[in-house]
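Structure tokens please, single chain.
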Amino acid sequence: MIIEKAASQLEALGNTSRLKIYRALVRAGRNGIAVGQLQERVGIPASTLSHHLKRLVDTGLASQERQATTLICRADYPIMQSLIGFLSDECCADEGCVAANDEDEVAA
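Here you go.
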């Protein structure tokens, strides 16, 4: 992952309202949630919600799909996993620690 993209996504999630919205999208699952239901769930005025959703969509963390007259919002799970991986994949890399599986093999 490009560090600038990760920084942009983390910045988007650094806003309390957007983090609350994003958590609601993640919780909604792969079928997503209608904007009206999302607004009820997070208690944010429609214009403010629209602004925050745009930021999440622009950073790739969420998507929107129109189904007839309903706008469905979804978290983009592969993008979310990529961001989480960016933060954790190199955990302890400079420490020289032995992975848990390697420790098990050495003990055997």
